[in-house]
Amino acid sequence: MAVGDVTQAQTDGQPAGPAVSATAPLDTRERRQLDVIRRFGTVGALLLAAGSLGAGAAPVNNPVWGLPVFGLFSRMTTVSLAIAFAGVFMIVLAWLGLGRLSLPGRARMVSLPQMARTLVMWTAPLVLTVPMFSKDVYSYLAQSEIAARGLDPYTVGPADALGYDDVLTKNVPTMWRETPSPYGPLFLVIGRGITWLTGDHVVMGVAFHRLLALLGFAMIVWALPRLARRFGINPVSALWLGAGNPLVLFHLVVGVHNEALAIGLMLVGIELGLRKMPRVGPGGPYPPRQPGELLWYGIGAVVITLGAVVKIPAALALGFLGVMIARRWGGRWKHLFVTAAALLVIFLGVVALTSLGSGLGFGWASTLNTANMIKSWMAPMTALGFGAGGLGIILGLGNHIDAAITVSRMVGTLLGPLLAAKLLLDSFRWRLRPMIGLGAAMAAVLVLGATVQPWYLLWAAIPLASAAGNTRFRTAATAISAAFAVALPPTGNTFDGRTYQLPYAYLAAAIVVAVALFVVRRHIPTRPRRKAPAPVETPA
């Protein structure tokens, strides 16, 4: 975090930040640029939707296979992959171009309605895609069916509960067919309702889960600009970096991940919890209790906890909401302890009601580390274990890769929560904004965890987008988001035995996108130049 952010946090510690400076609307030339950017991204979304017919994570019994015209895509996998990659590149480039018109501090920038319309244009075609980048949605369907049959999804996996020949089990990736569910009871209750509506119809089940993801996406879009205004951040810039992020579009909308619902509930809970909170600084004054203030704190805590009983990382937001409440009452340790106790009671109460009311019990607490089965190079601690084990082999010490990974993961499991606790303490001491602390704490816990997936980064990036106005953070977040967005193939497969498809698909997509860029080259917005300082006159 930059020094400027620290200084601002010390004088603006509570959620209601300074007013965002007004900007003028785009001029005629910039509106034309925005139109081209919108269409460029929309064409990319349409290409991604078309490519998904042959390159997406389609179900085993692919209903598209026998359809005229549409079935051709599934017979030309390399071509479909190239089309999908072209769509990915175009969306990312359109997002970067839109960022040029959404830079904080511009004299003229995109308005909030213009940004919202752009998101609608880019999202609409993606709603119709075959699931891409992951096959997790098929696990959702199978685990929901297990719950619908009255079995315990926290003790049995799809293969044992449904059988290997079941249509839902067949679509679950092999490594997850015998593992229990790692998701909270609220998500499985909703999934059980979807199963009641769709049965074992895979396409309809996916469609309803996508509607659920879109509901979470809508929550993110609703909460982000409101939180940004509280912290003195331009809401357009926050919406661009948070909701318009290609990782959000690809992995929450297209990939149908339940992070959409969990993150959406977390942000909405924070916004509701801050609704009646007055602004105070480190030295006060601390105004008397406002009408309805305690009620909104409770409502916010309940909504955040509902996000946690979808996916547990959302629970971390309760700690930083508690810090903001404790600082509002006076910022002393007694205020922190009283607030923590009250929030803990709410958390345990909501968890107990959802766990027992769902009939699923508390078994989900023992399956939260199911994803640790994956040994992903994207997880720094796992990569460190691979490196240490490989070095041992080179030095002739034997193959101890598994042991090295275990040790490095153990270190990360301890280090992540310690860093989160340090950030929580710094937020309480007015050294940084709590939302910045929340984003950084999420990054510490998840990045230092045993497994890291591209969509995990959204737990950190979206909260940070609402409160971090630092240019260096925006630049780093933009680069990381763009890199991860284009690095992961859209099929959700490993390409074992057919890696030759990737370079051909990448090359073909690059050629198509280069031609498209050449066509629109006159309408690509440039980064605004900083005004040169006026010369200082010196006496003769």
From TrEMBL:
Record-level Gene Ontology MF annotations: glycosyltransferase activity
Region entry Disordered, spans: 1-24
Localization per Swiss-Prot or TrEMBL: Membrane
Lineage top rank: taxon: Bacteria
One protein family per Pfam: MptA_B_family
Keyword list, A-Z: Glycosyltransferase, Membrane, Transferase, Transmembrane, Transmembrane helix
Listed transmembrane segments: 40-60, 80-103, 115-134, 211-228, 294-325, 337-365, 377-397, 436-456, 503-520
Membrane topology label: Multi-pass membrane protein
Family: Belongs to the MptA/B family.
Protein name: Polyprenol phosphomannose-dependent alpha 1,6 mannosyltransferase MptB
